[in-house]
Design brief:
- With 65 residues, the chain is of the alpha+beta class.
- It has one domain.
- The protein is globular.
- The mean pLDDT is 87.
Length: 65
């Protein structure tokens, strides 16, 4: 699911997401929406990561069993 935080929150709370891919862009904005606001706590396991020369990092997680 790309770009819909409220739908991701709903699906995460129902346990319907089996893979998370987060892209970290090293830019400080100072404010904005929280990605996982109102989402139940879940332990995630890092499966893979990839760092690019421009500083962007892609992180792949699965829910821990």
């Amino acid at each position: 699911m790309l770009g819909s935080g409220s739908v991701v929150q709903q699906l995460a709370n129902l346990g319907l997401i089996d893979h998370y891919q987060l892209v970290v862009v090293p830019l400080v904005l100072g404010s904005g929406k929280r990605l996982f606001q109102d989402v139940k706590r879940a332990d995630l396991r890092l499966e893979d990561s990839r760092a690019f020369r421009n500083g962007i990092v892609v992180l792949n997680y699965t829910p821990a069993a």
